[in-house]
Design brief:
Layout (H helix, E strand, L loop, with lengths): L2 H9 L3 H9 L5 E5 L5 H9 L3 E6 L2 H9 L4 E3 L2 H4 L8 E7 L8 H11 E9 L4 H10 L23 H10 L2 E9 L5 E3 L4 H7 L2 E8 L4
Parallel strand pairs: 1-2, 1-4, 2-3, 4-5
Antiparallel strand pairs: 5-8, 6-7, 6-8
Length: 214
């Protein structure tokens, strides 16, 4: 596969998926939880030569993945992750799904039990336009990262970047690196200023590991 072809395939993905792909070493073992139509998994398997697997709740996503020749099963991550053995994967990916989990703390623990590292992306509810919308209009905000009205959204545990970092601290989870994206999809490193990231990041992409592991 030529470099030009790889670059084109990468550019065709959402920016957060590009960042996730960049965090994953070639030829590693990867589980993509909530893999959707398999866009990320397809890139990883065919262009980074990973040993990739996926789990997806929706039948449409599973069918799309299977049709593309991807090893994806239909299942509910909140129950099925318990069936995987410790350390089965080098990376476990959960993209834009944590906020829809009934028990996000438990799910995060499971990701880091079955994977040496976890990569998590999520919308930041403390993004400044969201705050402004609540302040001025007194209604739940909508954006490209939060596209649903409050009564239609699958999101049940929205959080801020600062909230997520606090959860990592409580679980003794190290953030190895991370990026925040603005509404134009422009990424910048998470950095040391949580206040700035929490205010100006529409979504976050974080690489995690359990403290005490390498």
């Amino acid at each position: 596969m030529s470099i030009a072809t790889q670059s084109a395939a990468r550019a065709a993905m959402r920016t957060d998926l590009q960042l996730i792909a960049d965090m994953i070493e070639p030829a590693s073992r990867v589980l993509d939880v909530g893999c959707g139509d398999g866009t990320l998994l397809d890139y990883l398997v065919n262009l980074k030569e990973v040993d990739g697997r996926g789990i997806e709740l929706g039948s449409d996503g599973v069918n799309a993945c299977v049709s593309a020749g991807l090893p994806v099963i239909q299942g509910d991550a909140e129950t099925d992750l318990f069936d995987y053995p410790d350390g089965a994967f080098d990376y476990v990916v959960l993209s834009q799904t944590l906020q829809a989990m009934r028990a996000p703390k438990t799910t995060l623990g499971q990701l880091l039990r079955i994977g040496r590292r976890a990569i998590v992306s999520f919308p930041n509810f403390a993004y400044w336009p969201h705050r402004w919308h609540l302040l001025v209009w007194g209604q739940m905000p909508m954006s490209t990262a939060l596209p649903f009205r409050w009564y239609e959204t699958p999101n049940i545990h929205l959080c801020s970047i600062r909230d997520f970092v606090a959860l990592c601290d409580a679980l003794d989870v190290a953030i190895e690196c991370g990026h925040v994206l603005d509404r134009r999809g422009r990424a910048r490193p998470l950095g040391r200023s949580l206040q700035s990231a929490n205010l100006f990041g529409q979504q976050a992409v974080l690489l995690l590991r359990q403290n005490g592991t390498v």
